[in-house]
Amino acid sequence: VIAKTKGQGGKEYNLALIHQAALLVTMGNHRAAHATINKYLQLAELSDEIAGKLIVDDLDHVLALDTCAATYLKMGNVDKAIAIFEQKLKFVKTLPNCDEMKSDTMHKLGCLMACKNQHKIALPMLDEALNTRKYLYDGKHKFVYESTWAVAATNHTLGDNTKALKEYGVLLEKMSSVQDNPVDSVLVHNSAGKLLFEDGKFDQAAHSFNMALRGSQSSHNPQLKAEITLSLANVLSARGETDKAFELYDELLSTKSLKRTKLFYLVLFNKSLLLIKIGEVEEAKEIFDKILGTKSSMANDVKGSIYMTKGNIAITDGKINEALVFFEKALDTAEEDDVSAYVQAKKNMANAYLKGGQSDKAITTLEDVLEDLSGIDEEGKVVDLLKAEIWNTMSRVYKKKGDLSQAKNYAKLALGTYKSELGENNPVTLRNVSNLQLILLEEAEDLPKGDAKSIIDAAKYEMEGTLDAFESLNDTWTYRLDVASLKTNLALVSIWQGKPKKAKKLMRQIQEIEIPPEHSLVHRVEVLEGRLQALEKKKGK
Fold this sequence. Notes:
- The chain is an all-alpha fold and 541 residues long.
- Helix content is 78%, strand content 0%.
- The termini are far apart.
- The model has no long low-confidence stretch (mean pLDDT 91).
């Protein structure tokens, strides 16, 4: 009617087009909506070129851009949707009191960039959206909550666990007080659990996964429920709750809908790791061989990890050449752009060479990796942490060669990176503090007693602080080997200082800790026992 009476170039007709298109989106008729809104946008572009102004009011033009972006998204064209939101952002910045619309657009743009795996571009947008929304709304507002979720998830993906944990903490704290919560609480608990698991906070991770599992009962999403169950089983395995973990693994493996899916093979792989952990290596190897023998593409995601694990088993068995073959196969199965898989395979090759007495080959392999990592355009936390892993391995190789000076230098490089990227009290950082002190203690052993004293005193001070930090994590089972290692080193220091009573006290504490019989720490404890007996004998005289 408007077209017949007033023509198609006026405000009323184009306003009707915009609202008709928005209604069509609501009704799910996205192609018709797209065709309708494009009629307006073409006229709007022509009007802007000729008259230098819009046909409709500013807010109606914003609705048109939102509607157009929605149609592109519903039709699967994310790039076009991003282009429209970028156009919208440029437009709303010209409007007065635009903070609300600007933050909404920044949030949507950031989420779309994250969906395209452009997380480094997404994060500044999401941060700005969150900060603006915190200023505009109450802290319990749903817009603040959804932006907090987006920032947490993006930081998690980028490997910034410290920032991600901070935001997840806010999400978990405010979850029950947010009205019309736009984020599924199951997803929040599940994501927080994964992050806590990565950070070594197993008790908290188990709580989050249990909460997610409870919420998933009513979500009618069996795939998500299965994924959460697997994550919980992995936490229980890490906590040493073997029977409960096996129970969950077997529950998943007996679920008909999961048979021969990617998750099915992932469950098999994780169950096999637990079998290895409790000494059932042959049973685990049989499962690995069955997975490697399957022709299903669903098993491809775990084949690289299986080759890596089989290689590590071969190293333990002293079969170095066999281990190297497995690591080569792991490299062959890795995706071309999977830097982490490449680094892990090469690092394991270096370990095999080291175990086989070929330390020079190990060093050459690790130097090649460092050169490759330096040539990667995308610098950042992930690459820095991979470099730290290689420096750590270099330190161990040089230590085995007897070059303690080089071992110390590489250990310091690794420790500096872990401190800056993971924080002072992260378990990985604490382990590297302990490793460095052990090198310093070995270095001091070859010095005259007067020169060695200051080095040993400083190492003792650092190890005592590290021991306190591990004990403050309140997870005695998870960090028992770290605690045992530190107490062993401190007992050796006490022997060097001529204090058998202190060393004996630490020895008793070490004996109360469950150490796997194949662990390298067993030999160090035996050395400690021998030195303690020698000191007591000497003191007795």
